Amino acid sequence: METEELYSTLSRLMEGDDQEAVKKFLIEHIKEFSERDRENILTAFLEDALDKENINDKALLDFQNKAIAAFKRLEAEKAALEKQDKLLEIKENM
Fold it and tell me: Vertex 28, ends 16 and 38: CA angle to 5°?
């Protein structure tokens, strides 16, 4: 999905009342957003989960560790994609 279409679709969904549709869209397209926006989306999901659940300290720590692990996986994926892009660019310039 093109960037403009991605954000316009998200905007349209957010104008409606169907929060589940917004969540589903964000989950399905999370990798298409910028790194900053992905972090904001994941933070919002975390805050929403914390608001909805009565989480004890151990469960909260576990949840935070899982969120940190998810951020690290995203960083690793980003680095791998950047490396692939550089290799493709080098091959194209040969």
Answer: 90
Query: Where are the alpha helices (H) located in 1-56, listed in sequence order?
Result: 3-15, 19-29, 35-52
- Other beta carbons within 10 Å of 26: 19
Q: Cα(11)–Cα(94) distance, rounded to whole angstroms?
A: 42
| Mean pLDDT, residues 68-83 taken together | 88
Query: Which contacts qualify for 54-58: CB closer than 8 Å, 24 or more apart?
Result: none
Provide the token pair at 93. 């310039």
Q: What is the pLDDT of residue 53?
A: 64
For residue 34, give Cα distances in angstroms to 41, 55, 81: 10, 30, 13
pLDDT of residue 29: 92
Prediction pTM value: 0.52
Give me the pLDDT at residue 15, please: 92
